Amino acid sequence: MTFIAVCLKWVPGRPEVDALSGEIRSPNARFGGVSAADQAALEIALQLGTQRSMNVTAILVGDARSEPALHDALATGAQRAIRINTATPLSSAETARVLAVALGDASFILCGDYSFDRGSGSVPAYLAAELGFIQALGVVSLTPRPHDILLTRRLDGGRREHLQVVDRVVISVEGSVARLRRAGLASTLAARTTGVQVIASPITARREVSVTKPFRPRPRTLVRPQGATARERLNSITNV
User: What CA–CA distance (Å, rounded) separates 14 from 28?
Assistant: First the structure.
């Protein structure tokens, strides 16, 4: 059964630093969340699901702290929530690889074009490559029609590109494309008790230890100013 998927990324709040001792405290999970672009992707997925009579699945890669983001997606109208469990952060390529395992039957995959942390927006491109889907990245306008979707995506230099897609496409949207609807109290309370499907990640993140040093530019060989006196050398530098 085909469905519409929306990929979310929950990011914990910033760590707190004690002003006296300098101790770094772990981020409080209550202040974590998803970006406005991810919220826009969820709203577009819900609208498209209503128009096409298709179920919407919200999915993310993370630990148990990220489940409130999935409960919020269920409260706004998503029919299913999946969390791919991982205790350590994955790279963008690894994240796309584990998402592709669960999203092979999706007709449309919606993503935000940036997240709260690094905001590279590279996961949608990796995901499209893993699944062999069409890429429509950096979308600023989206118009669903009965048999296709018209997209406008941002290009460099202020240009725009218009696309027409049918299915099997990964779409990443900017936060200005749509505003996520507000969930009602009853649906919010019901979503808290709705189970989230948890899948074990097939990839174990590798921790790489590296030594960082201050940036030092490479030395360059410069031509020595010509002249016997300081004035002549100054004139050669300034081409006077």
Answer: 8
